[in-house]
Design a protein that fits this description.
alpha+beta; 6 strands; four-stranded antiparallel sheet; single chain
């Protein structure tokens, strides 16, 4: 189900370019998880398209974990980050940069870079695919799969998402969401303190 972790992921991923979200079809999810979806694919698509940081969303036409393969060939993103399970973590491109969009550049050597926050993803092994292309007309000059591989390790030091927890942190991303915890009077502890001492303990 769509939850706050997804929204935060979309927000962070959109900082690096136009964000395209591929959703698994009802059939794909049933084949992978062995259960029906809580919300239908049409409902999920409507919700994701309504999120302000999403450029476009679609139902993947393929099947299995890499059900978005055909759509990826059509989109030709500059970056695709995939984790060790083969899941696409996010796609990013440089065409959101005003200096890049629609600009004509002189022939020569250029260098592009993007910064992935160290606390964006959970622990694990990740690989990066890189494309060199032009948008109009669409043409791919270079596609290097698994050009870069790196491992994320949370040491638990400093401003870690895991805090003092030393176990395995689930999920693909680890957004540091803002939490507020407040004491609620009248809870079980209060009732235990005011219990009648003449009554037998349970």
């Amino acid at each position: 189900m769509l939850h706050s972790g997804h929204i935060e992921f979309f927000r962070q991923a959109a900082q690096y370019g136009d964000l395209y979200v591929a959703l698994g079809s009802d059939k794909t999810i049933y084949d992978l998880k062995g259960r029906e979806t809580v919300n239908s694919q049409d409902e999920r698509l409507f919700m994701v398209k309504s999120i302000r940081w999403v450029t476009e969303a679609f139902i993947s036409k393929g099947s299995g974990i890499l059900d978005f393969a055909e759509e990826m060939k059509a989109l030709k993103p500059d970056y695709l980050v995939v984790n060790q399970d083969g899941h696409s973590v996010f796609v990013s491109a440089a065409n959101h940069d005003p200096a890049y969009r629609g600009a004509t550049r002189e022939p020569g050597l250029y260098r592009s870079r993007c910064i992935i926050p160290g606390d964006l993803m959970t622990e694990g092994l990740f690989s990066v695919d890189v494309w060199l292309r032009v948008l109009y007309p669409r043409r791919v000059f270079v596609h290097e799969a698994n050009l870069l591989t790196f491992r994320v390790q949370d040491t638990g030091l400093g401003d870690s998402t895991k805090g003092t927890y030393r176990g395995v942190w689930g999920g693909v991303i680890a957004p540091r969401l803002e939490w507020h915890t407040e004491f609620q009077p009248g809870g079980p502890a209060d009732r235990a303190d005011t219990a009648d001492p003449s009554l037998p303990a349970r």
